Amino acid sequence: MTEQLDTLLNEARRFPPSPEFAARAQATAATYAEARADRLRFWADRAAELEWSTPWHTVLEWDPPHAKWFTGGTLNASVNCLDRHARGAKRNQAALLWEGEPGDRRVITYWELFREVGRAANALRALGVQRGDRVAIYLPMIPEAAIAMLACARIGAIHSVVFGGFSPESLSDRINDSKVKVLITADAGYRRGQVIPLKRNSDKALETTPSIEHVVVVQRRPGSSGDEAFAEMREGRDHWWHRLMQDAPLSCEPETMDAEDVLFILYTSGTTGKPKGIVHTTGGYLTGVAATTRMVFDLKDEDVFWCTADIGWVTGHSYLVYGPLANGATCMMYEGAPDWPEKDRFWDICERHGVTILYTAPTAIRAFMKWGDEYPAKHDLSRLRLLGSVGEPINPEAWMWYREHIGGNRCPIVDTWWQTETGAIVISPLPGITSTKPGSATKALPGHSADLLDSLGKRIDVGGGLLALTKPFPSMLRTIWGDDARYVETYFSKWPGRPDLYFPGDGAKRDSDGYFWILGRVDDVLNVAGHRIGTMEVESALVEHPAVAEAAVVGKSHELKGQAIAAFVTLRDKSKQSPALRDELKEFVAKKIGALARPDDILFSADLPKTRSGKIMRRLLRDIAEGRALGDVTTLADPNVVASLRDQYEDKEG
Ligand code: WTA
Question: What percent of the chain has pLDDT over 70?
Answer without folding.
Answer: 97
